[in-house]
Design goal:
The complex is a heterotrimer of chains A (230), B (435) and C (205).
Chain A (H helix, E strand, L loop, with lengths): L5 E12 L2 E13 L4 E6 L5 H8 L7 E6 L2 E2 L5 H11 E4 L11 H11 L4 H14 L15 H12 L6 E5 L7 H18 L2 E5 L3 H5 L3 E6 L2 E7 L2
Parallel strand pairs in A: 3-8, 3-9, 6-7, 7-8
Antiparallel strand pairs in A: 1-2, 1-4, 4-5, 9-10
Helix pairs in contact in A: 3-4, 3-5, 4-5, 5-6
Chain B lengths: L2 H14 L1 H36 L7 E5 L1 E3 L11 E4 L4 H8 L4 E16 L12 E8 L9 E6 L9 E5 H6 L14 E12 L2 E19 L6 E4 H12 L16 E6 L5 H11 L3 E2 L2 H43 L1 H9 L4 H44 L11 H18 L1 H9 L10
Parallel strand pairs in B: 5-10, 7-9
Antiparallel strand pairs in B: 1-11, 1-12, 2-3, 4-5, 4-8, 4-11, 6-9, 7-10, 8-9
Helix pairs in contact in B: 1-9, 2-7, 2-9, 2-10, 7-9, 7-10, 7-11, 9-10, 9-11
Chain C lengths: L2 H21 L21 E6 L1 H4 L6 H4 L1 H9 L5 E4 L7 H14 L4 E5 L2 H6 L3 H16 L4 E8 L10 H11 L2 E6 L6 H15 L2
Parallel strand pairs in C: 1-2, 1-3, 3-4, 4-5
Helix pairs in contact in C: 4-9, 5-7, 7-8
Chain lengths: 230, 435, 205
């Protein structure tokens, strides 16, 4: 099967502040097969976003190991983490994360540009991806002129720009209505088959989590398997 | 990320807050305008002042008299000449061959009797008077200390044109302000020749007429008439064909003087020493020019400092605006990093943003400074014109304009460095807003 | 044009404008010089030969008021040159021996001759006067000089000089111009002006 395999062992992460330290992840273990769709739920402040950051190489683990597709992220430098993110990971954020001054095509093409792809090829790839997510007629629109659902589809297209092996979605439907939610979720679920990547999404919506092959619940710093369909 | 992509992103980033960008650019524009205008005006004023000191001739000009040097006067700016000494072709060739001599312009002179239709200062008919006519190669007038006050210089080879000096204006009761009034008037000029008849010395005059075409300030030689070389040579030939009589202008020295241009201000002293060794008296405003240049240099430094301070203030504004932008765009920066931008990519984008603000402000500032300098120049020249003084020619050195643009760009980029570094160091997790 | 290209175009246009303005570093004052003199226009060289009536030292301001100066300044082109070779008490013979050689060096184009009073004092014979004056005129005409002979007349227009007939005869023989000039009170500016007018009239436009 294609996609990245994820192996997390003994992951611990603590935040220091003036009022003291806060351990949000306390020895978390997680194993995800390549090409799977996995959901992680938890209450607000449970540490879901922190876990997503560490899985996506947005931060370096303090304790424990995170191995994505055979790459151990615990000893990587900042540049190595950036390179890893560019090549291997695609992000979908709750707040969409699009640049308002760029068009949909330019937002998707930006990811290609960072990989050194030429402007023409980048544009062509962006158009193909936007077409795949049903936004062929919205390529030259800037985010303020798109609906929430359309923006999130653009974000998904951008996440797929560099053919990642792992897509991480942080509350991807948090700001969407029901119709848009269904559409986005269908899109995310199609990614392993259509684009050969593993999908890990963080959500507080249990109904959405129930559709995943594996569903985990993060509570008190520990990750518990809730359900598995495979 | 390529520089091209960084520039495109930077422009897009500036468009997020067009008002803030415009205000920042305005601050840079004002500062660059001030700097450009100050330096342009200072440079033009320096040129004007030095031009005044050199009486319109080159700064490195040296007057050589047809006289021996007075030992007590050697080295003085306005050295008094010693005993007369003929200045001939041999001397001219010797001086021309001296090292560090760039050019030598000979000056001839003769005495002429002048009949004018004008009245004197008291309103009476102006009596004919004897005056020295200085003959120059008009084609080389830019090399000589001659500046036109009104009208123009005589045309080379035209023997019916003459220019007069302010000394002539005084004779006819006019001031520099009224100089234009004498332009167009006609003079009758007579070269005298002494001859003997019946054991007595008589004089006869060779007369010709000329029209005053201009009023000049000249330091080429003492004389109230400035004429083409040929006019003096014809008159001298007539006078020298008669009996020797100094009062009538009889003069054996082929040249009344030379105007020597040294190869640079720094060589003026050396060339003067060499000419003194050849045996001729020299004068040049070298000490005065050196002093004035020192003072003007200080003024230039002060004005530059004022302009630079204004630019620094503008740069601080850029830094402040960029820091605010970094704070506002934390999530955006995080997203950029999340999709794979390295720290240096983010640094590049923000540095370019700052540099663009400085570049645009610099260009507008250079343009604004040019306009301000022109406006100030117009006002100043209007005043000078009312006072009957020669106007200031504004000079816009390319280095000032280019310096304003490059300086603004560089300073803005420097001011944007700290915010750019902060942006670069932001953790990628800002994309998800993690605690 | 896409937005980034438009911005580059605007920036490029601004830079070009700035460079164009900056390169015009000085303004200059142009001299409105006249056209060069016409080389085909022959310069008038006017010489005056004669005695006291031509020298006119008795005037208060001979350099302006003498008839020779008036003719030179009023009737001739600006490019004209004038020398007055007249000497005190000059006879025709002295005119030939002393004045003529110096005058010929100038290659004159116009000459006025006024002799008679000194010859009268020396009691020169009329035929000798006529012969010498003829030689003087001929020598001048040989070089292409236009000769104008001046002959004094009284208030009634009658020839005043002892040699009036001789001067008339020389003018006829040599085909040179003869101008009758009034001589009442040569010290008066009016008389000088009248003499000048008479000579100017003979020269024509």
């Amino acid at each position: 099967m294609s996609g990245a395999a994820v192996a997390v062992e003994g992951l611990t992460h603590t935040y220091e502040s003036r009022s003291g330290s806060l351990t949000v992840l306390d020895g978390v273990d997680l194993h995800v097969d390549a090409g799977a769709v996995v959901a992680i739920t938890g209450a607000s402040g449970a540490g879901k976003s922190t876990l997503l950051c560490l899985l996506g190489a947005l931060d370096r683990p303090q304790q424990g190991s995170v191995v994505i597709d055979g790459h151990d992220l615990s000893r990587a430098t900042r540049d190595e983490l950036a390179d890893f993110r560019r090549v291997t990971v695609g992000f979908v954020f709750q707040h969409f994360g699009l640049l308002d001054t760029l068009t949909a095509a330019e937002n998707v093409g930006l990811a290609c540009t960072l990989s050194g792809v030429g402007a023409r090829r980048g544009r062509a790839r962006a158009e193909a991806l936007l077409d795949a997510v049903g936004l062929a007629g919205r390529m030259d629109h800037t985010p303020p002129r798109l609906s929430g659902g359309e923006r999130q589809r653009v974000a998904i297209a951008r996440a797929l720009a560099n053919q990642p092996r792992l897509v991480l979605a942080d509350e991807p439907t948090g700001n969407l209505d029901a119709d848009a939610t269904d559409r986005v979720m269908d899109l995310l679920w199609s990614l392993p088959a259509d684009h050969g990547c593993t999908v890990i999404l963080v959500t507080h919506d249990r109904q959405l989590a129930a559709r995943a092959e594996q569903s985990f619940h993060l509570t008190q710093g520990r990750l518990l398997l809730r359900a598995a369909t495979s | 990320m390529s520089w091209r992509a960084a520039v495109v992103l930077a422009f897009k980033g500036l468009r997020r807050r067009p008002g803030r960008a415009a205000l920042t650019v305005l601050a840079v524009t004002l500062a660059a305008s001030l700097l450009t205008a100050l330096l342009t005006i200072a440079g033009s004023a320096e040129t004007r002042v030095l031009n005044e000191l050199s009486k319109g001739g080159p700064l490195a000009g040296i007057k050589v008299a047809a006289a021996r040097p007075d030992p007590a006067q050697i080295g003085r700016d306005d050295a008094r000449p010693g005993e007369p000494k003929d200045l001939d072709e041999t001397a001219l060739a010797t001086i021309r061959s001296l090292p560090d001599v760039r050019d030598v312009v000979p000056v001839v002179a003769t005495r002429l009797l002048v009949i004018s239709t004008a009245n004197d200062a008291d309103g009476n008919r102006l009596e004919p008077f004897l005056e020295t006519a200085v003959g120059v190669d008009v084609a080389q007038s830019t090399t000589l200390p001659i500046s036109v006050v009104a009208g123009r210089l005589p045309v080379d080879g035209v023997l019916t044109e003459v220019a007069v000096t302010e000394g002539y204006l005084e004779r006819v009761g006019l001031t520099r302000v009224d100089a234009q009034q004498v332009v167009g008037m006609e003079l009758a000029l007579g070269a005298a020749q002494a001859f003997a008849r019946n054991d007595q010395i008589r004089a006869r005059g060779r007369w010709h007429r000329a029209q005053i075409v201009g009023v000049v300030a000249q330091e080429a030689a003492d004389g109230q008439l400035l004429v083409p070389n040929e006019m003096v040579e014809v008159a001298r030939e007539w006078t020298n064909a008669g009996l020797p009589d100094e009062e009538l202008g009889y003069d054996t020295s082929p040249y009344a003087g030379l105007f020597v241009v040294a190869d640079g201000l720094d060589n003026v002293g050396r060339v003067r020493t060499e000419i003194t060794a050849v045996g001729y008296s020299t004068s040049a405003p070298e000490n005065l020019i050196a002093s004035v240049r020192r003072y003007l240099h200080v003024v230039e430094i002060v004005l530059t400092a004022i302009g630079l301070i204004a630019l620094v203030v503008a740069a601080i504004g850029i830094a402040n605006a960029m820091l605010a932008a970094v704070r506002e765009r934390r999530r955006e920066i995080g997203v950029l990093k999340a999709i794979g931008a390295r720290d240096r990519d983010v640094l590049r984008v923000f540095l370019v943003e700052a540099a663009v603000l400085g570049f645009v402000g610099g260009i507008l500032g250079a343009l604004g400074g040019w306009l301000i300098a022109r406006a100030v120049g117009g006002v100043v020249n209007g005043y000078l014109s009312d006072q009957g003084l020669v106007s200031v020619q504004l000079v816009f050195p390319v280095w000032v304009l280019a310096g304003a643009v490059l300086g603004s760009t560089f300073l803005a980029a420097a001011a944007g460095t700290l915010p750019a570094v902060r942006a670069a160091r932001l953790p990628a997790r800002e994309a998800v807003g993690a605690v | 044009m896409s937005p980034p290209r438009r911005q580059w175009a605007i920036a490029g246009g601004l830079v070009s404008l700035l460079l164009a303005l900056g390169c015009s570093s000085t303004t200059s004052v142009s001299d409105s010089a006249p056209p060069p003199p016409d080389p085909n226009q022959e310069r008038v060289v006017f010489v005056a030969l004669g005695g006291d009536e031509t020298l006119n030292r008795q005037l208060d301001d001979p350099l302006r008021d003498a008839w020779t100066q008036r003719v030179f300044m009023n009737a001739l082109p600006r490019s004209a040159v004038h020398v007055n070779f007249a000497t005190r008490d000059a006879t025709v013979r002295e005119g030939i021996d002393e004045q003529l050689p110096a005058a010929l060096e100038l290659r004159p184009t116009l000459a006025t001759l006024w002799f008679g009073s000194a010859d009268a004092s020396m009691s020169t014979r009329a035929d000798v006067f006529e012969r010498d004056l003829t030689q003087l005129v001929a020598d001048l005409q040989a070089t292409g000089t236009r000769v104008v002979l001046l002959s004094p007349v009284d208030a009634s227009g009658q020839g005043e000089s002892d040699y009036a007939n001789s001067v008339q005869a020389v003018a006829t023989t040599t085909n040179s111009e003869l101008v009758a000039v009034p001589t009442v009170d040569l010290s008066s500016n009016t008389t000088q002006a009248a003499i000048a007018t008479a000579v100017e009239d003979s020269l024509g436009p």
